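User: Just a sanity check before I run the rest of the batch. Below are the structure tokens for the first item. I only need the designed sequence back.
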């Protein structure tokens, strides 16, 4: 049984290494179909204030990620862009619901949440991000579709 666990761990490490190294070499090797384009998060006081007001942005669809009643992250994606299906859950957002999540995220998680703009590789704003985790991977698939990795669970207050 221990051999199987070690074998699985080794396979996971190899796979993770490939995911990290391959994009770095895709441009240098000029392999067709491996031209990865990445977006970024740009911290923004304006986005933070929008979430903390709370104010729902028009022409945005909202998604959350997390377990239980307090999300790890909330994102708003502009209507003209499509978020790849995955672990993000689309929600019908309301001001009371957003207010509740924002206050709980600030109390429960180890670091205070902060807002960011979600940008594509050209600097176009795809949407907004609110989380105590301030980094993620954003893969641009085409002019209107992208994938954004969900953040790892944040730390919790009150424990070591």
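Assistant: Here's the designed sequence for the first item:
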């Amino acid at each position: 049984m221990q051999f199987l666990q070690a074998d699985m761990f080794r396979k996971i490490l190899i796979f993770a290494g490939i995911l990290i190294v391959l994009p770095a070499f895709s441009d240098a090797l000029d392999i067709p179909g491996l031209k990865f384009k990445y977006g970024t998060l740009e911290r923004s006081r304006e986005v933070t204030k929008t979430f903390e007001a709370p104010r729902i942005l028009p022409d945005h669809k909202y998604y959350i990620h997390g377990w239980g009643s307090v999300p790890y992250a909330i994102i708003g994606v502009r209507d003209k862009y499509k978020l790849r299906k995955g672990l993000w859950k689309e929600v019908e957002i309301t001001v009371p619901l957003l207010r509740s999540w924002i206050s709980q995220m600030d109390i429960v998680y180890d670091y205070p949440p902060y807002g960011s703009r979600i940008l594509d590789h050209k600097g176009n704003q795809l949407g907004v991000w609110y989380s105590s985790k301030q980094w993620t991977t954003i893969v641009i698939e085409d002019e209107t579709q992208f994938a954004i990795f969900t953040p790892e669970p944040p730390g919790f207050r009150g424990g070591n």
